[in-house]
Write a structure and sequence with these properties.
- The chain has a single domain, classed as Barwin-like endoglucanases, CATH 2.40.40.20.
- Helix content is 8%, strand content 23%.
- It contains 1 helix and 5 strands.
- Strand 1 and strand 2 form a beta hairpin.
- The model has no long low-confidence stretch (mean pLDDT 90).
């Protein structure tokens, strides 16, 4: 998340947050960086690894509706509206 967005939401780097979309929600650790544009949240692909019962990162597939696809049928993992909340 961009530092300006994090400041407006009173979030801090390393804080656990809940990401919610129309498809579902997931909890993960927030990274605050100026490498992400304002108004966007970046969930890298390849995360959501479940290893020996512990989940590492957020799986973007779980936050994308199966009907949210391009004309060829490829899931649109980008541009998924979401809400970010603090996890107490």
């Amino acid at each position: 998340m961009n530092p300006a967005d994090a400041a407006a939401l009173k979030f801090s780097d390393g804080q656990d947050v809940k990401v919610t979309t129309a498809a579902g929600s997931a909890v993960g650790e927030l990274e605050v960086t100026d490498q992400v544009r304002e108004g966007m949240v970046l969930v890298p692909h390849g995360f959501g690894l479940n290893y020996e019962g512990t989940v590492y990162g957020i799986n973007a597939n779980h936050l994308t509706q199966s009907a949210h696809r391009d004309p060829l049928g490829t899931p649109l993992h980008r541009f998924v509206p979401c809400r970010i909340e603090s996890v107490e």
